[in-house]
Amino acid sequence: MPGDSTRSVHEAEPFDEHTGSVTIPIYETSTFGFARADKVPEAVAHSGVKGYVYSRWDNPTVVTLEKKLASFEHGEDGAAFSSGMAAISTAVFSFLKKGRHVLGIRDLYGGTYALLRDILPDMGFSTTLVESSSFALERGMKKSTGIVYIESPTNPTLKLVDIQKAAKLAHSNGAVLMVDNTFASPINQNPIDLGADVVLHSLTKYINGHADLIAGAAVTSKGNAHRIKMMRRDLGGTLDPLPAWLTLRGMKTMAIRVRQQNSTAMVLAELLSTHKKVAKVHYPGLKTHPQHQLARKQMKGFGGMLSFEIKGTTKDAMKFTESLKVATLAASLGGVETLVSQPYNMTHTQMSAKERALTEIPETLVRVSVGIEDTDDLVEDFRRALAAV
Fold it and tell me: Rounded to an integer, what distance in angstroms lies between the CA atom of residue 40 and that of residue 48?
């Protein structure tokens, strides 16, 4: 099989012999016409495979993105959405059944946490949120559990879940395992190879990589993808062709970007781990990370995300983020620019102070999404900002 960079450029985007175009067009159309009426039923029954009917169902540009991403995640098919949360919620709703239980970890992105803690219970579905260990997941399982939902590495403390063990646990109960792989990217980790049933992404992040669109996706088997797409058709969170095309463009440099981000993140993590003004560093690439060996086992690279705790007060952490000149204080992650944030007042505001304490998110925690700037420039920027604290 060709390497990641070669596939980033060419996978699912064959040369168009009719026009000579080396990139897929943006099929910016709401509907598709038919020359023959007898072709309509087949297109309706097999939208995206035997023809196209309506872009809320399927669109050629969007389908190309779904095929490309599915290939990278070693799945059979994918479903693209207008946001990461649209992908997550629609995938979860696709497998919900009356009387079934949803088991998740507490260490989740704030929007996902709110979905499992508030929205599903308000709709009458039973949910349980536990620690990210295999032991806690096993204790949280019920006979009625139909969905097990995890992130690995987690947001924002970079804890790891043993995906193989989670898959075996879910499957022994007849449940599906859903894994949010946004933090890792398909360059660094492929949960389907480890037994996951559905892999979820905020395409906004590493897949697109340029902080210029909002999108999401689910990758799974053909049967599960059809199930999710039918739910998407009714709920309406389909991705528009233009951001799908922009994501395809962003994917062409995905492997190069992620490798650079991995490399710089490691350097920053090592710098921070020995700095006198830093209390703790969370990065699975560090040998001091409690799950470093698990990271080596299930990840191909340690990623461009890290977090660390400033020694001092909340205001000290704020002073650090304000003093950076190369990195930017902003939400989101996975882009070419380095971003920092304090999760307690930006990405995890859905959690109460008590809930953040349970998931080890102090107000002094700073989350870092490493970009592709020169490593030396970022090192100097972080040193300068720490000196200002």
Answer: 13
Respond yes or no: is residue 180 known to be catalytic: yes
What is the spatial distance between Cα 48 and Cα 54, in angstroms, rounded to a whole number? Answer: 10
d(CA 204, CA 214): 5
The residues, ordered by sequence, that sit 6+ positions from 312 with a Cβ below 8 Å of its Cβ are: 277, 364, 389
**pLDDT score at 356:** 85
Its CATH class, for the domain covering 4-251, is: alpha beta
25-34, long-range: CB < 8 A, 24+ apart: 25/60, 25/61, 26/61, 26/241, 26/242, 26/245, 27/55, 27/59, 27/60, 27/61, 27/241, 28/241, 28/242, 29/55, 29/59, 29/241, 30/54, 30/55, 31/55
C-alpha–C-alpha distance, residues 347 and 257, integer Å:
24
Span of 3-7, 354-358, 361-365 with lowest mean pLDDT:
354-358
Q: Give pLDDT tens digits for 256-303.
A: 999 999 999 999 999 999 999 999 999 999 999 999 999 999 999 999
Strand partners, 180: 151, 200
Structure token pair of residue 274: 């020995």
HSE-up of residue 139 (Cα within 13 Å, Cβ side): 9
User: What is the structure's pLDDT at 226?
Assistant: 97
Amino acid at 157: T
From the candidates 27, 109, 283, 344, which is the catalytic residue?
109
Q: Which of 68, 106, 159, 205 is catalytic?
A: 205
| CA of residue 134 relative to chain centroid, distance | 21
34/97 Cα distance (integer angstroms): 37
For residue 205, indicate whether it is catalytic: yes
Catalytic residue among 56, 67, 280, 319: 56
Among the four given CATH numbers 3.30.460.80, 1.10.274.10, 3.90.1150.10, 3.40.50.620, the one describing domain 254-387: 3.90.1150.10
Domain segments of the chain: what residues?
4-251, 254-387
What's the pLDDT tens digit per position in 4-32? Answer: 999 999 998 877 888 889 899 999 999 99
Residues in the chain: 389
Say if residue 325's pLDDT is above 80. Answer: yes
Let me know: does 98 contact 143? Beta carbons within 8 Å. no
Asked whether the beta carbons of 208 and 60 are under 8 A apart, the reply is: no
